[in-house]
Amino acid sequence: MVFRQGQKVEIYQKSTDESWEPYMDTYVGLHGVITDPDHTINDPEALVEVSLVDHGTHRFPQDCLRLLDS
Fold first, then answer.
1. How far apart are the two ends of the chain, measured CA to CA in Å?
2. Which of the residues 26, 53, 60, 64 has an alpha carbon 20 to 30 A from that of 17?
């Protein structure tokens, strides 16, 4: 899946990616907006920057994200 800037997403599960840190478990279930999709690389393994509601901006592996209806 290709993410685009401004899309609304949910952190819906823990990632299997090695970049997933235990503190990120607290973000599962939160919603946010894609701020940097790394679309110039367009690599499904690349981290995606998400601005979470009331929790700042973080980079997440793509396998933990799912698009929300606009």
1. 17
2. 53
